[in-house]
Amino acid sequence: xxxxxxxxxxxxxxxxxxxxxxxxxxxxxxxxxxxxxxxxxxxxxxxxxxxxxxxxxxxxxxxxxxxxxxxxxxxxxxxxxxxxxxxxxxxxxxxxxxxxxxxxxxxxxxxxxxxxxxxxxxxxxxxxxxxxxxxxxxxxxxxxxxxxxxxxxxxxxxxxxxxxxxxxxxxxxxxxxxxxxxxxxxxxxxxxxxxxxxxxxxxxxxxxxxxxxxxxxxxxxxxxxxxxxxxxxxxxxxxxxxxxxxxxxxxxxxxxxxxxxxxxxxxxxxxxxxxxxxxxxxxxxxxxxxxxxxxxxxxxxxxxxxxxxx
Length: 310
Ligand code: NAP
Known about the structure:
Elements: E1 2-6, H1 11-22, E2 28-30, E3 40-45, E4 62-65, H2 71-74, E5 85-86, H3 91-109, H4 112-120, E6 137-140, H5 144-156, E7 160-164, E8 174-177, H6 178-187, E9 191-194, H7 208-213, E10 218-222, H8 231-239, E11 243-248, H9 261-264, E12 268-270, H10 280-296
Parallel strand pairs: 1-2, 1-3, 3-4, 4-5, 6-7, 6-9, 7-8, 9-10, 10-11, 11-12
The site of NADP nicotinamide-adenine-dinucleotide phosphate (NAP) has 32 residues, from helix 3, helix 5 and strand 7.
């Protein structure tokens, strides 16, 4: 039996090496060289893969995302019916995202954009000192990534709120949930950070209406998925000055087209979907563990809840 690695990225070889380092007895196939379709018992996929293709493998027991997100696996046609899908929960991925969030929160909080603009003009000018205890952070999503970022920001002394689908307690974080909760949180958020999964319910959540609820001069950080932001609405809010600046790691489509206004916008920081990169050697143990469990008919870990969509 074999694991099929389905990605067009250079990471394919790293994944193969990492899985073999965990279990040298594994048979690894690199798509499209799948060999006999009946051999394939698990597919480890990234977002370039055509999910319809996985219907060809009659003995498939498990699909694993190469990242924390699974929107790329669930969109139509979706995984073959009845096959479980697992996502990654990996400390290096989480650390990477926390670093990205902290970096950009501090950049905005400590007026880094203003100081760079002054430096460009060779102006020596001290701006009013920001007050950490009064800079309110609102995090959309308090899952694996959102909760870790929340804890890191709390350690600096920022007041942190978080919005979730179901009521969720993270120590020190003011929790909000549901549509009314979203509006209430936005009204008291100076730096909004999106760490939601992309589902039909969360697509376009950062739009003209929700941006207008943020206090004037608020900042936006999106490192979840490009589909969470209505790009034209964010550009309008930036151009009107209602939103002071944005740090964006994810876009729709990706790569961000060269002519897109985000590239040249003076108040937008563009990243190439690099906030939290999967390190195969760190992620491989849980993939191998799940394969063993699937073979033995045991309960799988990090499973996607199809009804919730993440
Ligand atoms: P997770 O552990 O599944 O947490 C998701 C959080 O979002 C949960 O708190 C969940 O609420 C909340 N949520 C889901 N749907 C919601 C809704 N309709 N309304 C309000 N809250 C909702 O996910 P994660 O591991 O933190 O990852 C989040 C996302 O980050 C991934 O799906 C992926 O798209 C993105 N990501 C991006 C990168 C990158 O490089 N840019 C890297 C990794 C991940 P409950 O607590 O109620 O379940």
